[in-house]
Amino acid sequence: MIDNIRTQMRKGLLELSVLLILSRQRAYPSDLLRTLRQGGIAVVEGTLYALLTRLHKEGALDYEWEESTIGPPRKYYTLTPHGHHLLSLLRQEWQRISASINTFI
């Protein structure tokens, strides 16, 4: 039961986490995975790629291809102005929710 709860909470925080990471620097998906895992958010590639695709379609992310010296070109993601606005809204909501929950803790 606790694993299911943990999974649902992580899914809800994944979008915020990805936007926060990309607000600091552009990133390749494997860099995002590594950073998320270092932060304690376990995510599989398929879930991340689906999120990146959705955020791109919504206009929150853009990407650029960059040649790689060790393989095929890499797609690096960045936040668009809409992505920065979305991040701001998600941060506000996170602060509101966490303040509410902290009153009970």
Q: Which terms summarize this structure?
A:
single chain, 105 residues, mainly alpha, two-stranded antiparallel ribbon, 67% helix
Uncertain residue ranges: none
Shape call: globular
Integer average pLDDT: 91
Structural class: mainly alpha
Residues in β-strands, percent: 5-15%
Number of strands: 2
Q: What is the string of helix and strand elements?
A: HHHEEH
Termini separation (Å)?
Answer: 21 Å
Summarize the amount of helix as a percent range: 55-70%
> Major sheet, described briefly?
2 strands, antiparallel
**If helices are DSSP runs of H or I spanning 4 or more residues, what is the number of helices?**
4
The side-by-side strand order for the widest beta sheet comes to 1-2
Radius of gyration: 15 Å
Can you characterise this structure?
This protein has helices at 2-24, 29-38, 45-57, 81-104; strands spanning 61-66, 74-79. α1 (2-24) crosses α4 (81-104). It has a two-stranded antiparallel ribbon with strand order 1-2. It is globular, with a radius of gyration of 15 Å. β1 and β2 (74-79) form a beta hairpin. The protein has 105 residues and is mainly alpha-helical. It contains 4 helices and 2 strands; from the N terminus they run αααββα. The longest helix is centred in the C-terminal third of the chain and has 24 residues, at 81-104.
Show the helix and strand layout.
Layout: H1 2-24, H2 29-38, H3 45-57, E1 61-66, E2 74-79, H4 81-104
Antiparallel strand pairs: 1-2
